[in-house]
Design brief:
- The chain has five helices and three strands, in the order E-H-H-E-E-H-H-H.
- With 81 residues, it is an alpha+beta fold.
- It folds into two domains: 36 residues, YefM-like fold, CATH 3.40.1620.10; 38 residues, no CATH class.
- A three-stranded mixed beta sheet has the order 1-2-3.
- A hairpin with a 2-residue loop joins strand 2 and strand 3.
- 4% of the residues are buried.
């Protein structure tokens, strides 16, 4: 786990993207943790969103309740993902 100030991370973002493949990077602002940079695989995106995004969960619930719904593949295509 690394803890680094925002300015240092901003000026060396590529370096910290590489670092986060092995360990999370906690970013501080005014000495307090403000964000975390964490490596994620494409295959883990849905799980990440389900765990952390109430908006994503509501969207899935709404899609399931609508007649016909929308597959994840169709949604991704419609959003350019």
């Amino acid at each position: 786990m690394k803890v680094e100030p925002m300015g240092k991370v901003r000026n060396n973002f590529g370096k910290y993207l590489a670092v986060c493949e092995d360990e999370p990077v906690f970013v501080t602002k005014n000495g307090k943790i403000a964000a975390v940079i964490e490596h994620i695989e494409d295959s883990e995106i849905e799980d990440f969103l389900l765990e952390r995004s109430s908006r994503f969960r509501r969207m899935l619930s709404r899609a399931k309740s609508e007649k016909g719904g929308m597959s994840l593949k169709k949604y991704r295509t419609s959003r350019g993902v």
